[in-house]
Design brief:
Order of helices and strands: EEHEHEHEEEEEEEH
Shape: globular
Radius of gyration: 16 Å
Largest sheet: 9 strands, antiparallel
Number of helices: 4
Oligomer: single chain
Helix content: 10-25%
Strand content: 35-45%
Structural class: alpha+beta
Length: 179
């Protein structure tokens, strides 16, 4: 797992943007972001995903393929994915192929960049500000898991500041800062 504070430079969003300040899995857990590295064959990894679906009551799933050649309106969509937003449901991604970055806001409202690669399972809680981008490979294939019908409804900042899921998320993580 590789996570670190985002450097906020003006370089292409797909670059590393590594500030040199690492963020641990414990720090991610403190903001209710859950990360798990699944090992083994795809079949073995899918058994773990299936168990997670049972445990967390995920009923639906789909796969998304993101690349300039596979995603219609690629440039438009990648800009939408990189716009800071929340969801009213947790966002669950299992990376099957490729790689990319999820950026999430920490308790101090700083961007934490999380590299996601093949075998990574990431759960981003409802109400956390986040965004997604590919890395310079320009390709990812990910499974998306949903509790109900598949939906992806972003609520952009600042419109989401008073959203009940945002408020609940902030209450859960409390006012502590990273050390």
């Amino acid at each position: 797992m590789r996570a670190y504070l985002y450097d906020n430079s003006d370089a292409d969003q797909r670059e590393l943007h590594d500030s040199g300040i690492p963020v641990s899995i414990e720090e991610l857990n403190a903001i209710n972001v859950q990360y798990q590295r699944l090992e083994g064959s795809l079949e073995e990894k899918m058994k773990v995903v299936e168990q997670l679906c049972v445990e967390r009551s995920y009923k639906n799933r789909d796969e998304i393929h993101i690349s300039p050649t596979l995603l219609p309106s690629y440039e438009e969509k990648i800009k939408i994915f990189f716009t800071e937003h929340i969801h009213e449901d947790e966002e669950i991604r299992f990376i099957i192929e490729g790689s990319g970055f999820f950026d999430v806001r920490d308790r101090l409202d700083r961007w934490v960049r999380i590299l996601v690669e093949v075998g990574d399972l990431l759960i981003v809680p409802a109400g956390i500000y986040h965004r997604f981008t590919l890395d310079t490979s320009n390709y990812i294939r990910a499974m998306r898991l949903f509790k109900e019908d598949p939906k992806w409804t972003p609520i952009n900042r600042p419109l989401a500041d008073d959203n009940k899921y945002r408020v609940e998320h902030l209450k859960k993580i409390g006012p502590l800062s990273f050390c």
